[in-house]
Amino acid sequence: METRTYAIIGAGMMGREHIANLALLPEAKLIALADPDAGSRKWSGKAAGEDVRVFSDYMEMMREAKPDAVIIASPNFSHIDVVTDIAKFGAAILVEKPLATTVKDARFLAQLAKSYPNLFWIGLEYRYMPPIAKFIDVLHHGLTGPVKMLSFREHRFPFLPKVGDWNRFSENTGGTLVEKCCHFFDLMRYALQSDPIRIYATGGMDVNHLTERYDGRTPDILDNAYVVLDFASGTRAMLELCMFANLTHQEERLHVVGTEGRLSVSIPEAIVDWSPLRGEPWSEKIETPKDVLAAGDHHGATYFQLRDFHDALVSGRGPTLSAQDGLWSVKIGAAAHRSIETGLPVSLDENGDFT
Ligand SMILES: NC(=O)c1ccc[n+]([C@@H]2O[C@H](COP(=O)([O-])OP(=O)(O)OC[C@H]3O[C@@H](n4cnc5c(N)ncnc54)[C@H](O)[C@@H]3O)[C@@H](O)[C@H]2O)c1
């Protein structure tokens, strides 16, 4: 593939994961990064190597380095301003999830993306994990028959500390169901090729962060939730999130049940499992190259997403993950939060809007 130059804005944990994965894609040449935090600049500058220019101001970086593509991995609350600023330069954009912290800001960015003259991509990368990609492929080839039920369960450790502790407050993140569960809602839409029409959720911050204080404030982020969704296709779906299930690892289980049987995928085991009503069951371990697994915490998703992004950039085709997908996942997360606040189900129209 042809070479293109890349820059990263926000060189914290996720920025470094992008640095490590770009290093596995020689045709995607990282030339610059920008971060206002001296610690992040030092750490990430070292990881990126001496050929990569390091800036504290991303506007200066854009003017000086003129990258073909920019990866925005700054905190959620900053996406609205950073994307708006960067769009003035016309470079291809990959903005980390969530698109924004509010439906209003996400709508603004999705509108901007519609008339953007270059590639605009939202980093909802779960579908790129090889076991999930296999699961989706089998599902979309019709193995299960029409899907009646879908369930996604994440059991994991609490939110990690972030630079400046931005992820402790919903005003900075969009709330847990936007911040992290946008991934899972996008995956549901993609798996089912349908959009939700009704959502009921219950959740709270019951175990983690209760004794933490930041400038005298206690965090307000959910650490567990159930979200039940009705899809336009007639499929019922459920998300179970628990962030105090263990202290070290992340365990994800996705399954769908159709008229012909049950298809499951488990992460990190990387096993896709088919349990039919009739016929032979099978189970397959999906391998991911070791260097790809080692380049991040997302089971290879960051690498395969960047490869697809680069292909779209070079070929001039549209995004696999569009700003509209980003907007939908923010709307679903926000609707789930609304349901928790009111104790009532929330109905969504065909655009995902709700009152
Ligand atoms: N794709 C995924 O699965 C995934 C995983 C983790 C994080 N993320 C997303 O990546 C983004 C960054 O998260 P993180 O975990 O790396 O956080 P982090 O706190 O580790 O890093 C964020 C970095 O951005 C810098 N920053 C702050 N304000 C900035 C600004 N205005 N312009 C440029 N840089 C700025 C900070 O100094 C910090 O170095 C978030 O949007 C997060 O939701 C995505």
UniProtKB/TrEMBL annotation:
Signal peptide boundaries? none
Start and end residues of each Gfo/Idh/MocA-like oxidoreductase N-terminal domain: 6-123
User: What domain of life?
Assistant: Bacteria
Gfo/Idh/MocA-like oxidoreductase C-terminal domain boundaries: 145-348
Q: Which Pfam families match?
A: GFO_IDH_MocA (PF01408), GFO_IDH_MocA_C (PF02894)
InterPro entries (UniProt xref): Gfo-Idh-MocA_inositol_DH, Gfo/Idh/MocA-like_OxRdtase_C, Gfo/Idh/MocA-like_OxRdtase_N, NAD(P)-bd_dom_sf
Any one Gene Ontology MF annotation carried by this entry is: nucleotide binding
Q: PANTHER family under this entry?
A: INOSITOL 2-DEHYDROGENASE, PTHR43593
The name of this protein is Inositol 2-dehydrogenase
What organism does this protein naturally occur in? Litorimonas cladophorae
